[in-house]
Amino acid sequence: MMKTFKATATRLEALSRNNVKILEADVTDAKALSLAAVEVAKATNNKLDYLINNAGSSTNPGLTLDQFPSPMAVEKDLIDNFKINTIGVVHSTNAFLPLLKNGSDKRVLILSSGLGDLDFTLAAETGAQASYSIAKAAVNMVVAKYAAQFKADGFVFLAISPGIVDVAATRGSEPTAGELEEFKMLSKAVGKAAPDFKGPITPEESVKMQLELLNRWTVEETGAFVSHLGNKQWM
């Protein structure tokens, strides 16, 4: 399950800023998220302008749907990815909706992935990253559903693929075997779908572009699924 542990938030702790409050919750645990929302409400006078759903996880990235050792194995992989990448977003959003309704901007960003795009999948001719891709495609519909429901209330819901980001320098450890397999799969897919791809961007570049999009997106455009470039160019 995807968790954020206070003990591992060393870089946030090091900022030593009064306006940074670190809480611990599991995105698959609705009760834990509700408790976190209560703590946020105390610090923000029961208001929230922005919610960024960043938690996500990928398992067995190199396996296609027919390569799992058993029907139970593929079912478990699909469910695990769906719980974290899709249901987790629903739990997180629902927990903080009351605060967002009291906010001024009412903006909700969900980190999605170009792997959840049907056209990219077909162009890349890849069956790998199956469970993760399916869960991300589902979360794009989650965004559309919230957008349709809360457009009249002035909300902006936006799903953004952050691009291919080089996170090696920020993680402080060597990639795992699964992550290396994922990188090999992505490289092969990118070669087919985006032959002019020039390489990954830095976390700072990705975050800057995402925030610029979130801040300029209008209520009329709510519910969109776009890349960090604001279009369907995922690389």
TrEMBL record:
Pfam family, one: adh_short
Domain of life: Eukaryota
UniProt GO molecular function: oxidoreductase activity, acting on the CH-OH group of donors, NAD or NADP as acceptor
Keyword annotations from UniProtKB, A to Z: NADP
Ranges in coiled-coil conformation: none
InterPro entries: NAD(P)-bd_dom_sf (IPR036291), Sc_DH/Rdtase_CS (IPR020904), SDR_enzymes (IPR052184), SDR_fam (IPR002347)
Matches recorded under PANTHER family: CHAIN DEHYDROGENASE (ATSC), PUTATIVE-RELATED (PTHR45458:SF3), SHORT-CHAIN DEHYDROGENASE/REDUCTASE SDR (PTHR45458)
Designated name of the protein: NAD(P)-binding protein
Originating species: Mycena venus
Top-level taxonomy: Eukaryota, Fungi, Dikarya, Basidiomycota, Agaricomycotina
